[in-house]
Structures are given as C-alpha cells and as structure tokens.
Write a structure and sequence with these properties.
The chain has about 450 residues and is of the alpha/beta class. The chain has a seven-stranded mixed β-sheet with strand order 1-7-6-5-4-2-3, with helices on both faces. Helix 3 runs antiparallel to helix 10, helix 5 runs parallel beside helix 10 and helix 8 runs parallel beside helix 9. The longest helix is centred in the last third of the chain and has 37 residues. The radius of gyration is 26 Å and the shape is globular. The model has no long low-confidence stretch (mean pLDDT about 95).
C-alpha cells in the first residue's frame, strides 16, 4: 500500500485555493524539454513491497559479507564483537530521540553520557580533555591541523608516510581552501616506520606533525622521539589512532608527548556498517581547550546543589559569531559516541586490556601461519593486530582471487596507494577477537593455492 495521505478531494481543494486547474499547471515554468515525457528508461516499474524485498535480498546475496567468510580486512575499519546490549540501549527512546543536545540543558541524560564519553576518551588517549565527538577520524584529523595552525600561527604541516592515505586525501582537499602548506611524506615498504624522515622534515616553519599510531602498515612509530624534535622548534604533534583497541596494550599517545590526539572510534560499539556512520575522537592538552573544535560538556551543580550537566563550550559558527568559531562542523556523532561509551563501559579498563591482548595473540597466530606459506614474508617487526604481508605478486590480484575462494584476505596496499608502484605487493592483514583458528587455516590454505596457481 502506497503512503498517499491526500485524497483526490484534498488535492482538488488545494488546487482551487491556489487557482490552478490541474497539478500540471504547477509545472508551467519548467521548460517542456526538461520534463519527463514518460517513464525513466531502464528504471523498473513499481512493484510490491515483498517483490522489492526479494529483489534487494538477491542483490545483497552477491556480496561476500564480513559475517559469512574468513575476514582479515582492517585499514582503519575493524570487525569486533559488539555486545547485543549496546544496540539495545542506544535504541531506548530517551537516547534515540535526544542524541544531540540542541537544547542542551533539557537533555540531562544525553549530556551525562557525553560527559562520561569525554572522560573515557581522555583517559584512553592520555590527554587532559576530549570533546563530545566529531564526524569521523579523517575530518577530526583535519580539524586538528587547523587547530594547530591557530595555536602556532604557522601554516606548514608534515604528514607521515604512515598516515592512512584517505586521511591524507581529506587533509589535502581541505587545504586547497585554506592555502595551508601540506608536506606529505612518501610511504615506504620498510619494517620500521618513517620516524627519521618525519623528524628530518620538521623545521622552524612547521605548525604540526601528523603521525598515525599504529600506522597504516601496522608499524608503531616512536612518538616520544618525534615529539621531542617537534617541540624543539615550537611545532605540535598530532597523533592519529584508527584502532582504539590498541590502546589497551600500547602506551597512550598523550603520555608520549602528543599535543593533540584524534582518531576513529568505530572499533568500539559501532560495527563496520558498510563504511559509516563512524565516530571521530578528539583529545588535547587542557591549555589548548579554547581552540578545540566541536562541543565540550561539563559538570556543575544546580540551584539546589544537585549534580547537573551543561554544554560548557560550543565554539561552532551555529553558536557564536562565525569569525570567532573554531570550526564549522555542524554536529557531533552523538549516537555513535553513546555506543562507544556503552561498549567501553561494559569492558572496563581490565576488559579492554584483555580484549587487546586477545587481538594481539590472534594476530601473532595469523602471521606465524602466513609466514609458512611459500613466497610470503611478514614486513613488521612489531605490530598490534594488523601488519603488512609481502607477496610475490600484485596483492590486488591476490585479494580478488581469495574472494573467489570465499576468503576476505586483507586490503592491498596497491588499492590504498595506487600510484606507489613499490607498494603493490603489500597486503595489509588484520586479525581481531572474531578471528578463529578455522579462519586462519582457511586463509593460509587459500593464499597458498592462489600463489601456487600463479606460479604453475
């Protein structure tokens, strides 16, 4: 049944009121050549709801989805188990209908959740404060660069070659409008991250250095050394974390000298979701709080002395004069932030550490098995739950052949860096707590068969 609330009598009354004889009279100002003469070519006629569901289900069945095959994809979006209670709680009406505080002091529950979320992110990142979330990791990265430029009054930013290329593309695209000078270091297929190259690129004109931790190839850069070099010339260090579960096992970036820490919160509570919506995380030192973009929720007491929550800072152009705004970002990812906070609360500090340990153990098991496949070598000396595998041929072809064998065997570096010929044999492989012994063995067997078939 189609949802058409207006009856023919309703339409006739409306047309009479505005002085039009027919609905067609409403389109007289549209040139005849711009109007459709009939059905759109190639577009099927209307169908019943059940027929459309069957058709869409058949299309969806052509996909090889994360839950139906051995899954080793990562590169900034990770498959973790999300407890059923997370989805149950975020769909409660109190949260679902008030997930973003446009009339903030009315939605005390939402403000409290965001306050707790900020506390969790700050502790996770090792920063003094964190905001109430941003769109996603890549836009948070760009906002951090803008923030660094305001603080240092410089406009030159150095991007590590280990930064996720999609983040780099967002930065370079936005910099076209601000005229910021973006120095993007070339990615290299080496066991060690490009710490020396990053430090060598820092000079007196540098506003900030952007370093992913762990980086896009799974390597773990020396943030302390980079921070020391940057701070010596008055530059800030922006650490980018795309896998927050890693911080259950490796040291927080803020404790290693990072001034601003941003990242993607998808791993906790959110799920893969075909690429979004995701969750931007943003933390920094307290002395920079007034330059921080987005919203900041605070705790206070009301007239009766009871604990309450308020929107303490909101330096967006929706709230203050545009020329004084730190960002034109229009919202936070409130519902995703709630999911993140619930998942992290269910885990607790000890639970996050145990989850991280399981992830690392599964990754070790995966790479030890893959290293036994003829022609395969593991690039990384150190990693968390993701590392780069070097294949004897272009990894893009191998990924497709693995998919034909019902294995989602990682992300090819050739896909991430299509113009970097020296990286095309690299395959980025991720393992999480959802990876089973059977998945690892199926991956290794399929990879061995694919490589043997190519050499035969």
């Amino acid at each position: 049944m189609r949802y058409l609330p207006l009856t023919p009598a309703d339409r006739a009354s409306m047309l009479e009121t505005i002085g039009a004889a027919t609905v067609d009279d409403l389109f007289v100002d549209v040139p005849a050549e711009a109007r459709l003469a009939g059905p759109i070519e190639g577009l099927p006629a209307h169908a019943s709801e059940m027929a459309v569901e069957r058709h869409m289900s058949a299309l969806a069945a052509k996909n090889l989805s994360a839950g139906t095959a051995p899954f080793f994809l990562g590169a900034g979006a990770y498959r973790h188990h999300v407890p059923a209670s997370v989805d149950h709680l975020i769909q409660r009406g109190e949260f679902l209908t008030a997930y973003t505080p446009y009339q903030p002091e009315i939605a005390q529950g939402t403000l409290q959740v965001l306050f707790e979320f900020q506390t969790q992110v700050a502790r996770l990142f090792g920063t003094d404060i964190a905001n109430a979330s941003m769109y996603d990791g890549s836009t948070a990265c760009w906002e951090a660069i803008l923030m660094a430029a305001r603080i240092t009054r410089k406009g030159r930013s150095v991007l590590s070659g280990g930064l996720h290329p999609h983040y780099g593309e967002v930065v370079r695209t936005m910099a076209k409008f601000t005229k910021d000078d973006i120095v993007s270091l070339a990615p290299e297929l080496t066991a060690d991250p490009d710490d020396a190259a990053v430090i060598a690129a820092i000079d007196a004109t540098t506003s900030c250095v952007v370093v992913q931790y762990p980086d896009v190839m799974g390597r773990i850069p020396d943030l302390a050394a980079i921070s020391e070099a940057a701070h010596a010339v008055g530059a800030l260090v922006i650490a980018v974390v795309t896998e927050p579960v890693a911080l259950g096992l490796i040291e927080a970036p803020g404790t290693l000298g990072a001034d601003i820490v941003v990242g993607e919160g998808q791993s906790l509570g959110v799920g893969l979701q075909f690429g979004g919506p995701y969750l931007g995380l943003f933390g920094c030192r307290e002395k920079f709080v007034r330059q921080m973009p987005g919203r900041l929720c605070g705790q206070t007491v009301d007239a009766e002395g009871k604990r309450g929550f308020v929107l303490t800072l909101s330096t967006r152009e929706q709230h203050i004069r545009r020329e004084k705004a730190t960002s034109n970002i229009c919202t936070n990812s409130g519902l995703c932030a709630l999911a993140f906070s619930i998942h992290l609360t269910l885990l607790g500090g000890d639970g996050l550490a145990r989850l991280a340990a399981v992830n690392h153990a599964r990754a070790q098991q995966t790479f030890e098995r893959l290293a036994k496949v003829p022609g395969v070598t593991i690039l990384n000396d150190a990693y968390f739950n993701e590392a780069t595998v070097i294949l004897p041929r272009d990894a893009r072809e191998v990924v497709r052949e693995l998919a034909d064998r019902q294995v989602l065997g990682g992300v090819s570096l050739g896909r991430l860096f299509p113009v970097a010929d020296g990286l095309h044999n690299g395959l980025l492989v991720a393992a999480t707590e959802t990876t089973t012994d059977e998945d690892i063995e199926a991956f290794a067997a399929a990879l061995e068969a694919v490589l043997e078939g190519a050499s035969a």
